[in-house]
Amino acid sequence: MDLLRIATAGSVDDGKSTLIGRLLFDSKALSDDVMAAVEDASRRHHGDYVNLALVTDGLRAEREQGITIDVAYRYFSTPVRKFILADTPGHVQYTRNMVTGASTAEVALIMVDARNGVVEQSRRHAVIASLLGIDHIVVCVNKMDLAGYDQQVYESIRAEFTALMARLGVHDVVFIPMSALHGDNVVEPSANMPWYHGEPLLHQLEWVPVREGIDALPLRLPVQYVARPHRAEHHDYRGYAGSIASGVLRIGQRVRILPSGQESVITAIDAPWGPVEEARSPDAVTVRIADDLDITRGEMLCGLGEPPQIVQTLEAVVCWMDERSALRQGDVYRIKHTTRSAKAMVTSIDARLGITSLTGEPDVESLVLNEIGRVSLKVSAPLACDDYTRNRITGSFILINEATNATVASGMIGEPRFSFNPLGNSAAH
Q1: What is the pTM of this model?
Q2: Which of 160, 246, 301, 381 could be joined to 221 by an S-S link, Cβ 3.0–4.6 Å?
């Protein structure tokens, strides 16, 4: 079975944790001990009411306050597919946690409270999902029971959110009216909303296309480790280990090592379960080549067609994640791109994204916690990279404060799928 990574998002108290709890409960994915713990916590905090949100609200502070602070991960499967669910926070001050939880997701579930409609945080999470390159969005119009299961309420929210997603350049959007509390349209169709003719949420998640096209992308294999065993029987073994970011790797394939530009031929591919003839993303492999070349950690094995860019200056969209400092022009950080590290200087801050207007705010002196902006960087060593819209792994990076070793920003190389320049042109690409 394939694996689908999902991130939930939305404003505070829109019902994200309750939805996940209901999804796990109705799909029979909760063990007896987990249910016992949830029931016990519910009795202590909510009386006779079993609060399924406690399945994911694992931190004591979250259980006491009834909010999600950290990113909670849950794993479950159905006969069709395996899933990893990331329950991300709703509060604006934890936007960085939403970026972290959604960075590897292929589907985003954006919750909207039917009573409140599309609020600023709903828009913020939709913008972040678009920036992160998530192609499949499911808008869960939740708490329909509190809106009397009114179709017009649902249609109004759907119309507003459809216009927003069109501006963001996201075209695969599914809308589902539901009540996570009562299970309407979560796993089973709802008898309370006969006017909805679509499938419930679980069916959508089971059949949404996953990782389509990743094998068709050009080969990218960042070298993480050079394997040279010191045992006598392996004295001539030299392999290059890493996880395939995209494409397919085959024995006999000619590859180019970047940024050096050297070329060789793949002679062997060793997977964790033994030698294989070919491997594909996201397999972790060790490869051997025909020539004795000097290849180190941070270099990248690529196919001969459609090579990545080799750059030392780049433009990127960054989300600032450090509450103790701000990003300013002239600051120097360590950039971590795939397996390569170098120093990076901020040469300019070109614009800050206005979440409401979806336009760029010019003349910005700094980016502070949870702000998103376009910046230019100069890097001390060449990077082999792609635009983020083409390859999410080779197009992303993080910035690290070398004094504190804290990750202060996440970045996406190139232009996003929608423009936010200082002139206010927010048309989708």
Answers
A1: 0.85
A2: 301
8 Å CB contact between 186 and 23 = yes
Looking only at the bridges linking them, the beta strands covering 372-385 and 340-354 are antiparallel
| CATH class of domain segment(s) 220-303 | mainly beta
Rounded CA-CA distance 395/397 in Å is 7
Q: Which helix (H) or strand (E) holds 152?
A: helix 151-167
For residue 155, CA distances in Å to 22, 72, 149, 186 come to 24, 31, 11, 19
Please report, for residues 8, 242, 278, 403, the alpha-carbon distance to residue 226 in angstroms, rounded to integers and kept in the order given: 38, 9, 20, 28
Q: What is the pLDDT of residues 18-45, one digit of tens each?
A: 888 888 877 777 666 666 666 666 666 6
Within a 13 Å sphere around the CA of 370, how many CA atoms are in the beta-carbon half?
Answer: 15
Largest interatomic CA distance in the chain: 75
- What confidence score (pLDDT) does residue 379 get? 98
Cβ atoms of 76 and 187 within 8 Å: the answer is: no
Q: What's the gap between Cα 58 and its chain centre?
A: 21
Domain ranges for the chain: 3-207, 220-303, 309-413
Question: Does residue 185 come out as left (phi exceeding 0), alpha (psi in the -120 to 50 range) or beta?
Answer: left
According to the CATH classification, is domain 3-207 in 3.40.640.10? no
Tens of pLDDT, residue by residue over 182-232, are 899 999 999 999 999 999 999 999 999 876 667 889 999 999 999 887 665
Cα separations in angstroms, 244 against 204, 214, 281: 28, 11, 5
Instruction: Please choose, from the candidates 140, 215, 222, the residue with its C-alpha nearest in 3D space to the C-alpha of residue 174.
Output: 140
Half-sphere exposure (Cβ direction) of 41: Cα atoms closer than 13 Å: 20
Asked if 132 and 417 touch (Cβ cutoff 8 Å), the reply is no
The reply to whether 309-413 shares the fold of 3-207 is: no
CB 10 within 8 A of CB 124: no
Measured distance between the N- and C-terminal CA atoms of the chain, rounded to whole angstroms:
34
- Say if CB 333 and CB 343 are below 8 A apart: yes
Superfamily in which the 309-413 domain is placed by CATH: Translation factors (2.40.30.10)
Q: What is the mean pLDDT of the chain?
A: 86
Torsional sign, CA 395, 392, 412, 352: positive
